[in-house]
Amino acid sequence: MIRSEDYKRELVIIFFTHLRMIIAITLMVLVGAALIGFFWPKTYSATGSVLVKTKKPDSIPEAMELTFPKFTDVTKEDLHSEIQLLLSADVIGKTITYLEDNKLVFIGKDKSDSASLTPEQRNEIFTKKIYTVKNHLEATPLPASNVIGVTYVGKNPDKSVILLDTLLEQYMTYRSEIFSPGEEEGFFTDQAKGFKDSLDAKEEELLNLIREKRATDPQKEITNNLLLKGDLERTLNQLKSSTIDKKASIEYLEKTLASPDIEYFSFIENNLSLNNFGVALQKVYGDWRDTLRVYRPNSENARELRGEVNDLSRALKSEVEAYKDNQVSQYKAMLRNIADIEGRLETVDEKNVNLQELDFYVQRLTREVNFLKVSYETFEKRKEQARMNRDMGSMTKYRYVSIVNRAFPSNGPIFPQSGKIIPFGLLVGFILGCGIAFTLEHFDHTFKKPRDVEVYGGVPVIFCISQLK
Questions:
Q1: CA 309, CA 307: separation in Å to the nearest integer?
Q2: Alpha helices per DSSP H over 181-271
Q3: 385 and 249 share a domain?
Q4: Residue numbers of the domain that contains 115
Q5: How does pLDDT run across 78-112, given as a tens digit for each residue?
Q6: How many other C-beta atoms lie within 10 A of the C-beta of residue 358?
Q7: Domain CATH for 318
Q8: pLDDT tens-digit map of 240-292
Q9: What is the pTM of this model?
């Protein structure tokens, strides 16, 4: 029966079979690590950090309403936006220019005068310097904070510190220029002046309208006209009612006067003369009726009384006729008054319409004046704010972002560190040697043990001879 393989024994056999190769590879990697650790050019780093305290409040010039600034919390997107600004080509370019103009640090090997170069060549060299610095820069947000850590890796620790420190200062200045640009004050000044000119023109138009129409308060005049219209309408209704009564009274008088019978006109009120006339006629007529009870109608006494009755009746009708003419005159006067009141009502309505149009126009001009006034005041305040930001200068750039840690060098070189790279090289060399040994063993299909002959060849093994060297 074939026994199962002893894997631990197999591994030990493979290890000792290729022991020399494993030791050689380990020593080679170890020597390489030692050479790197002791002779490789040392690289240093400078580290700094920036605190993003809060977002700058939005201040939109087109928003005319006066609002208090609202400060919101900083998000991850805001931190990444600050990182993009920090690592932008403009900030790095300003940093390089400042360092080289002040002869603090020169990027690359070119320290000679570039006056002999063409502008295209200078731009190309400057672009390469920007990418050189950017490739050695790294900025990452620190966990659970609003702090951005910035690291610059270079060959010289002092120059790395100077470069990173200058970069942070240029970033703060550049950020201040972006959020409070110098052109901001001029823009707000021009806008304020434009709104002031428009405001003056609208106010002058409103004043001319008031002078021309003499309407200090159109709404008040409309109210007064409506009260007057109400009084006129009540008077008109009374006149129309009185006119109807007057016309009916005149028609009745005409009908009564046309009657051949004797009429006393006792229905006429408030006329003492006619009432007395009617009473006298009634008394004479009564006497005549009493006389007829005693005398014949053709008797002298009866004829005299009858003549007196007729005379009094004619005289009374003549007086009533004059009274009727007076009532007709009053009726016509009432009709003229009605026509006059109706005309006045039309005039009041027409005046109210004109006043409504005037009031609408005045209100529109007033709204425009108020809007222009608020706009002018808003841009004036924004202009003052921009001026204050410009005057405050460097103080404002630390308002929303601050440098927490200035650039400071690393504690020795960050690469190579011999205390770490030599043990690491020893470990890597040993693992690499073992890996190569086991790989070679895996692809070697020759018989290595007597048992392989029995397993794969199917023949018994009598004896074996060790390899002689």
A1: 5
A2: 183-213, 218-258
A3: yes
A4: 41-179
A5: 888 888 988 898 989 989 888 888 888 888 765 55
A6: 19
A7: 1.10.287
A8: 898 998 888 888 888 888 888 777 777 877 778 878 878 887 888 888 888 88
A9: 0.51
